[in-house]
Structure prediction request, 113 residues.
Amino acid sequence: MGGLDEHFNPAERQEREALAAAFREVFSLPSGKRVLFWMLEQCAIYREAFAGEAVSTTHYTLGLQGAGRKLIAMLDEIDQRFYPSLLLEIATIKAIDRQVTINMRSEDDDVDA
Prediction:
């Protein structure tokens, strides 16, 4: 998990390694990637934080984004390629979802005709 490991005692190091293994296991699955991407969306990572005169809304969004950045930092600590590859894989998953939706609509149209 990088050079930071040397600052932890053996028990902390073991806990961090177990957490990293859990991240790898869960997020290696397509369903895990969907959940992770959904979590990042809930953290407003992909939205503009500035809400004009609504300062409290801006601060709230910045807080959400802070949580999202912690999650991304954890992913980067485990593997620096994890987050970029997640973005590519999510794009593929969404494209497949769109195609499935189009196919389902097409089948519904065939049944109605």
Notes: Helices lie at 10-27, 30-42, 55-78, 82-112. The radius of gyration is 19 Å. The chain has a mean pLDDT of 90. Residues 82-112 form the longest helix (31 residues).
